[in-house]
Amino acid sequence: MNNKNTKGRRARATGGVIVPVITPVDENEHVDEKAFRAVIRRCLDAGVDGIFAGGSAGMGPLLTDDQWRRAMEIAADEVVDGHVLMGGVIATSTARALRQIRILDRIGFATMVVTPTFYLAPSRESELLAHFEACRQATDMQMVTYNIPGCTGISIPVETIGQMAVEGWTDLVKESSGDRDYFARVLAACRPHGVGVMQGNEPDIEWGLTQGAAGIVPVCANYEPQTYVCAFEAAQRQNPELLARAQRRASAIRDVLGVSRRNWIAGIMYGVSTLGIGSGKPILPLQGLTPAEKAPVDELEVIDIRSSANGV
User: Which long-range contacts (CB under 8 A, 24 or more apart) does 185-190 make?
Assistant: First the structure.
C-alpha cells in the first residue's frame, strides 16, 4: 500500500454523490481486499464524487479494530486524485471516537463522518455538543455530522445541528432519518451558514434534491452507482423527468435488495456478490439472505436508466 499521506490530493466534500461502500469480508471475517478495491473502483468509474468508508453499510462498528484500520487503509489507497474520501467515526464513547480520528488522520483522510455516540446514547444537548466539539477540536479534517437515529438510537436535535453550524464545527450534514419535516428544518438551520445537507434516505432522493439537498449518500449505489449519478446530474440540470425516472429505479433496486428489511446489509452485500464481487457474507451476528430472499436479487440486472428503452 502507498503509505504517503495523500490528503492534499483529495477533494473537499461539498455535495454530489457519495457512496457509503460495503466492506466485503471473507469466510474468516477478514476484509476481502480484492473485493473491497473492486467495489470502490466500480463506483469511482461510474462517476460518483466520493466514497464513504466505514459507515453503517460498511459495517464499521462491527469490524475489529485491526480490520477497521485495514479497511481505512485500503480505501485511502484507492480514493485519490480529486475524489472525496470520508471515514466513519461511529463509536460508543468520545474517547473511542477520538482514537478513530487519530487513525484516519495518520492514514490521510480529509473528511470524517461523525455520529452521536450509541448504546448508552446521549440524553442531553450538552452531551451531544461535548462529543462533537471534542471531535472537531481533535483534527483539521473536514467534519460531516451524521444523523442516523435508526442505528444510534438518537436523532440529533435541529437546534444542536444549528448550533454546530453557527460555531463552524460541521461542514456538511448527512441526514438519514427518513423524516421529511426534520430534513427540511435541518436545511433551514444550515443554509444561512453555508452548511450543506446530504440526503441519505433513498426513497427521498428526488424530493431532497428538489428541496436543495447538497447531494445524496445512497447505499444501493454499491450495486448500480450510475443510477444515482444520473439522479444528481438530472437535478443539477433541472430535468425533472429524468430525476423521476432515476427515483423510480432507485426505489425498485431498494425493494429488490430488501433495504427496508432488518437484514438490509446482507441484501446489499449479496446483490454486489451477484456481480462477481465478494462473497455476500456479512459479519456475525448478521445473517446472509435466505434462498427465498436471494431469488429476486438473482433476477435483478444492472441497467442504464438514461435509455428510455428501459421503460423504468
Answer: 185/158, 186/147, 186/158, 186/161, 187/211, 187/212, 187/213, 189/158, 189/159, 189/161, 189/162, 189/165, 190/161, 190/162, 190/165
pLDDT digits (tens, 9 = 90+) for 127-177: 999 999 999 999 999 999 999 999 999 999 999 999 999 999 999 999 999
Q: What is the pLDDT of residues 83-100, one digit of tens each?
A: 999 999 999 999 999 999
Say which CATH topology domain 7-224 has. Answer: TIM Barrel (3.20.20)
- Write the pLDDT tens digit of every residue in 267-310: 999 999 999 999 999 999 999 999 999 999 999 999 988 775 45
